Amino acid sequence: MSDSPSTVVLCGASGYIGRYLHRYYEDRGIQVRTIGRGTSSDATWSDHLGLVEVLDGADLVVNLAGRSVSCRYNKKNADEIMSSRIQTTAQLGRAIADVENPPALWVNASTGTIYRDSRDRPMDELSGELGSGFSVEVARAWERELFDADVAVRKVALRMSIVLGAGGGAVNPLIDLARVGLGGKMGDGGQKFSWVHVADVARALDHLYDRPGISGPVNVATPFPVTNEDMMQQVRNALGRSHGLTTPAWLLQFGARVIRTEAELVLKSRWVDPQVLVTSGFEFDYPILQEALANIASETPCGLLPVALG
């Protein structure tokens, strides 16, 4: 690429994607400043002047802050999911408005779950149909807070699909299921599974920073989604497991209650089309699931992996 940021501000850097990006930028000699809730961050959300100081002179801001959605959507958790996204985005907007030297690009996390359950066609940024339900309302409010912020800064809402990578994130539960013999299809297995390797998330951020003509929603998913059945078979193949028991939808609903999460996370059909990235020349390092899983399997230890429960 022809241009790189010299200073990046990461918000919500303690999660899996945030930790990866922190290493990714520092390994390239890029200064990383962090915003979070703990004292280890360079600024905390409760300190407006601290936010302004950290943001001043930065080239790129990446906001990943938000409570995990891997939980039951009771009132307490739903309120935290919504407020943790809306409030931090609003605080960023107010702080950037007071910065003397604002960033060139503000990237705010969003989600490919904003689109409707789709098995009939892919959903791109222009013609994709937004869905309904709690997860969609969260995503719409999140993006609205970003784009309504009254700052003269280029903004991108990163509509990420399921992010896969070694060492954590969404892949650990899939690996554990395969290793205990439950790595078969989930439900009828026909739901689309849109995904992206975490390395391509980082590279997509480079791509967006280097192309000032891109703003608005950007889908982050490979152009080659698979069905849930195909995905689970490829997970088993990568781990050397030939068979896996099917998990019917009713059992997923029951199991989700036991581990305090929502079955929607695996039963909704997500078919996310990365038109903006592809038409602007982005090339994925891991376009095919088999290649991504081979990379992940080569860096994954034996045994059951830690999984965060709701």
Describe this structure in words.
The protein is an alpha/beta fold and 310 residues long. It has one domain (7-298): Rossmann fold (3-Layer(aba) Sandwich), CATH 3.40.50. It has eleven helices and eleven strands. The strands form three sheets. A seven-stranded parallel beta sheet has the order 3-2-1-4-5-6-10, with helices on both faces. Helix 1 crosses helix 6 (198-209) and helix 3 (75-97) packs parallel to helix 4 (134-148). The chain is globular. The mean pLDDT is 94.
In short:
With 310 residues, the protein is α/β, with parallel strands linked by helices.
Give the tags.
11 helices; alpha/beta; single chain; 310 residues; globular; two-stranded parallel ribbon; Rossmann fold
CATH class: Alpha Beta
Radius of gyration: 19 Å
Q: Walk across the major sheet and give the strand order.
A: 3-2-1-4-5-6-10
Can you give the helix content as a percent range? 25-40%
Spatial gap, N to C terminus: 40 Å
DSSP strand tally:
11
Largest beta-sheet details: 7 strands, parallel
CATH architecture: 3-Layer(aba) Sandwich
Structural class label: alpha/beta
Question: Could you give me the name of the CATH homologous superfamily?
Answer: NAD(P)-binding Rossmann-like Domain
Q: Total number of helical segments? A: 11
Based on Cα principal axes, name the global outline.
Answer: globular
CATH topology: Rossmann fold
**Mean pLDDT over all positions:** 94
Please indicate the count of domains: 1
Low-confidence stretches: none
Q: How much of the sequence is in beta strands?
A: 5-15%
What is the string of SSEs from the N terminus onward? Answer: EHEEHEHEHEEHEEHEEHHHHH
